[in-house]
């Protein structure tokens, strides 16, 4: 079996060279004075970078399949991002107030403004307006209210004239215990959460007219989660009915999770008590590196020697993934169709497909809008950036999610992003977190591959567990470890405060 090797030039003239097998090598070149990455290449994917004298990124040029794509950045003297030009030549422009806080960002004919409260300087309102159609502007406004401890307790949505309110309640350790979404007198969702002594989600209940639907088409009323000491799910009890907002026709299912291999955190099979709606047994298979190679739907998964997912076999077609030298997922091929993905510091910036080109607009890490080839979607999101509503020319498309992120709605999603603002893969529903580092499955409620930072690093003792069993209060954008949502909000606030720094040229 081929080995993975790494060669390092101590003078940094030529950085590490990884060789996994013939034809799979990545080369890196660095600035001789400051060791900043200038050039990297792998299997025809080439990335070149230029920097300002301050060390901030000035431009990136990516070459893929012989075609080049350019991205450009400009900054203020205090290091605030003033503009970003994407691979389609679209420029997003940022404007800041005297405190260094973002107060407006614009991308083409889409504008977002940010208002802050006068006492604490906290974000109070985001208003996003689409002026593409000169005869009919569309607007999404999100107003935020906080309690005395600085926790967000109310989020009011104005979805182009349709008002909704989301009220959130917390316990003494800042875990969310209730979240209620209403539109007028109608309760869309009233969700309650209980946690075990280790802080993991133990019970979930939901009432309302827009309850989430699980991966097998059941409209949820409640779920109970049981774990072992290694954060493995052992039993999930689901109560569901036909979707009516009462206690009629309630049925249940007990899913039992088994870990029977040499690795005590590697899920081997799942059994279900209700085989009317659920498969009676799901068997999973892994390769020697612990990567899932046969999933719950019978799909076959293949990986390269670096552990990156490169192929998914489905009944309809084979899906192939490509990566750049930074291990970012940059391309997906299915049959004759290919899409490319491009990233900025804020995350996924563009997805260019054979039929649809998507641009994702953010401001201070808040997800705002998605521009597609022929229309724009304004996005209503919660505190974790999960997309709750897509506002377009045909009205509002509402989304909802199970606790672990399986998406459902009144109609198929119009946009690409969903749970926690992440891209959902079209066929599987997986999220390729960490810009493609590894796949998270909302169906299995765990990762398909073990974390390279586990079991002794920040990834935790369980290399497959998602956010240590707390998907309500934690997010995992890196694919390595969960971030407590209030810390994510604090990170956003810190990014708004410019500081003068001195960097070597």
UniProtKB/TrEMBL annotation:
Residue ranges annotated for the Teneurin-like YD-shell domain, each copy included: 112-452
Record key words, sorted: Repeat
Region spans: Disordered: 1-24
Any Pfam family hit: TEN_YD-shell
PANTHER family cross-referenced by the UniProt entry: PROTEIN RHSA-RELATED, PTHR32305
Protein name (record): YD repeat-containing protein
Organism of this sequence: Pseudomonas amygdali pv. mori str. 301020
